[in-house]
């Protein structure tokens, strides 16, 4: 775009223009994800890995974030998809925290206790609660990530098929009126 065209274009003022720019940027990034070279499985794998890692990030004080990188490499997923899953996982983490604690209590032995002599009893109880959240978050993150992988892959395949159909109809203007004999 030339400088003259940019000067002629009316500029949106204030917050509305800023929000419109954010919306346009988010839509562009979504289109980039939908058209990723690895396909829907690539993006869905990344999304599931990011969501899985978020389910136990809080009790590990953020260190679980670094687990995203080797998992993406091993499972051949999208880093951008993983970051989207990680951010969306933050939205649903707090409602699921109680479930993580309960599941962690089921998985861990009942007589498990921490007793570090240099710290108080309250901190020992907090360490046990964090361990329950970590273990429960891993278990819940596995099954939620698997469900989200299937859902995200199906959604991306559906959106790709819709896009392909729209492009096919755009190439042949009369294609909507006449049935395709080859497709049956």
TrEMBL record:
Question: Per the database entry, which stretches of residues form a coiled coil?
Answer: none
Q: Where is the DUF2062 domain?
A: 24-163
Q: Which UniProt keywords apply?
A: Membrane, Transmembrane, Transmembrane helix
Q: Which residues cross the membrane?
A: 33-52, 58-75, 82-108, 141-161
Q: What is the protein name given in its UniProt record? A: DUF2062 domain-containing protein
Q: Which organism is it from?
A: Paenibacillus pasadenensis
